[in-house]
Amino acid sequence: MTGAFMSQLLPLAPPAASPPSFAGAFQADLDTLLTWRRDVRRFRTDPVPEPLVEALLARAHLAPSVGNSQPWRFVRVRSPERIEAVAADFAACNARAQNAQPPERQAAYAALKVEGLREAPVQMAVFCDDTTAQGHGLGQATMPETRAYSVVLAIHTLWLAARAQGLGVGWVSILSPEVVTRSLEVPAGWRFIAWLCIGWPEQALGIPELETAGWQDRAERPVVVER
């Protein structure tokens, strides 16, 4: 595995003199990648080589951002104590979320596995730096939330790059942002966006786990409105 990802991901190739063609087999492979990009919750505990993690972060840094502000900030969480603090917050938030479900859905909710905080070998918190001077505020005066949207684009870029290498990514959103921010002691002005669990999935799923569990089917087509 190590030799495979090293040859495919490192180093980043310089921009070509002319735009490349993404035709034929590449388009089919891209459709497959998008289809198999899944929110993974069940991980093996095998470690992820550090050069691969660094390569994924380099790919994430290729994402577009408002005004070229690049506001994403990634925090590798290695401390068992900090992870345990976040896991405890998840447990409390998840219990409240379960209790908020209609009585007829609470058992189904309890059966769902919605995080990999103790299994995934790579735990990463992603923040938006709302104080960055990069980009000089371009495009953010009327919609400052576009900084957070930019961070989400970086997360999705990392997600696709991880899936292409056989890795799974799980986004844990049942958390208190203030607890995560306090537990990780990040700089003031960093806004919590996502907690990512990254590792080798126990199994490859072509269908989202929430569908196989009977929680929610995917809509057949997106909602499109014409005006």
TrEMBL record:
This protein's record includes keyword Ribosomal protein: no
Domain Nitroreductase span(s) in chain numbering: 35-200
Keywords carried by this UniProt record: Oxidoreductase
TM spans (from-to): none
Xref: InterPro entries: BluB (IPR012825), Nitroreductase (IPR029479), Nitroreductase-like (IPR000415), Nitroreductase/BluB (IPR050627)
EC top class, as a word: oxidoreductase
EC number: 1.16.8.1
GO terms assigned for molecular function: oxidoreductase activity
Protein name (record): Cob(II)yrinic acid a,c-diamide reductase
Species this protein is from: Pararhodospirillum photometricum DSM 122
UniProt lineage: Bacteria, Pseudomonadati, Pseudomonadota, Alphaproteobacteria, Rhodospirillales
